[in-house]
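Quick log. Single chain, no ligands specified.
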Amino acid sequence: MRAQTHIAGALCAYGLTALVAGLPLTPATGAVAAVCGTLPDIDTRGSTVGRIFSPIARFIERRYGHRTLTHSYAGQVAFALVLAPLWWAAGPAYYTAAVVGYASHPFLDTMTVDGIRGFWPWADCRCVFPYYEGRPAAYRTRTGSRADSLFCALFCLLLLPIIFLHISSYQRVIRVVQGDASSAVRDYLEMSQTHLVEVRLRADDPTSGRSLDGTYNAVGSTDTNTLLIRDTDGSVFSVGRPYSANFTARRAVAYPTTPVQVSTRSLSMRGRLLADLDDWIPRGNGQERAHHYITGRVRLDEPVEITPDPTRYSTLSSTGPTLRLSHATIADLEAHGLMGALITQGSVTLRLFLTPTQAEVYPDHVSAERRLRRVAFEHEPGQPPLLLVRRGDSIHEGDTLAIVDDGTAALARTRLNNLLLQQAEIEAEAAGASLQRALYRSRDNRSAAEAALLLAEDRHTQGFVSAGALEQARTLVEEANREEALAKRELARYRTDHGRRLRATKEQVAQARLRLGALEAATVVRAPVTGAVERIEEHTRPDGEIEVRFLIGAQPAPDSLVMPRPPLSS
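-> predicted structure:
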């Protein structure tokens, strides 16, 4: 056969072998197979390769003859052994291309009238295919004949589907032919590692009679038979088996679109806002967010209610304060008003699909640990509060954040009443202390008068003190006793009268302090920690009142040890 037929046959032989063995068909491996497919004809000067290597061809042809040494089975085995180092030097693909390309040449030559001397040098018989007894030339061709050209054309035509199968893989061809949801899931799992994926879909909902017909973005999969797709309005649907998904696919074929680099990051969300996820998503030149999906479970500082839609796939679901995310996006969080939700514990997995115009670069504060505190208060719709801080302001613990206007006058009156009650309490306590000191003085005076009387009696016995002086000492003792009795009565009256009023005053002071604290809490909003105002939100409650929320990023204590955070996985 001619050189072009051998080249086409060698390419087909290696292409089929590579499909079975899972080897690549590249221009380089194809060139190796093509060259080696013509190499056995180096044993004759009548071939293209023989004319190129004329001295070698002349020697082999004179010494051994055509289709002997280089076409025999021994020659093929020797060629494979000589090129064995190529397996480790260049790889299995190049070695296989060389050996298969070389072996295809003698096989094709068996289809010629003369065949090959395959068992040379041990036997001189000729090997032909096919063999028809009695007519050696039947069903075989001659070099340069029309049949030779027909073989070349057939090999070239066969090469086209072989190349297509290498580009798409025969598994891909089978899946396209099947066109069901499970095939689309397998294609998505393979393609989504390097490309964004779209699905050409025709599907029906057997329960509601709805249908889908068009091209949709593939989001993910819940199992091997269920594919998730997103409509142009952001709605996510599941496509799979009847009654186990939103839609049953009549035809589903996945196709790769934009090449991307996939990055997967596990993020700890403790003490953060859901809005912080937006900082982890790079933006393109037009400030559009990178293609992304968020999966995980977090616990919020307050319960949330998300009503599931049975006709759609729920990317967000909640049970009390627990929020579950499944292939959700920032747009889904914004649609449910959850961007300002504070997370107490939990983590999420963020999967990014980055195009060449979207760099995976993050601000410094994104990787830092954060501790957020929420301060909230309510006010009537017609009585807006006075906000004393703005977003981004630095504050210290105890600073006033806002004042509710409808309580300022009442707060002033309560503070004045509290001061008056405290003054009355102080005065009452001072009066009781004064009476107690008077009783102590009267007791001291009585004790001193009794001691003077004993001394006067003793001196009177000895004749040193007159009877008048002794009588005066006795008078002083009686006066001291009367003063002590009077002080006792005054103190007892204070304890029964003023003490009762003192206790009432103290109770009033305690109640006034409670009223003042409650009024201050409802009127003056103070910062619980030192930090910066991260976010200020307003929410209208079902009862019509408006709730204002301050989200404060707290700073760690100066003496606390902050350990560096480990790098995020990607």
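The chain has five domains: 3-168, 173-259, 262-368, 369-399+527-570, 409-520.
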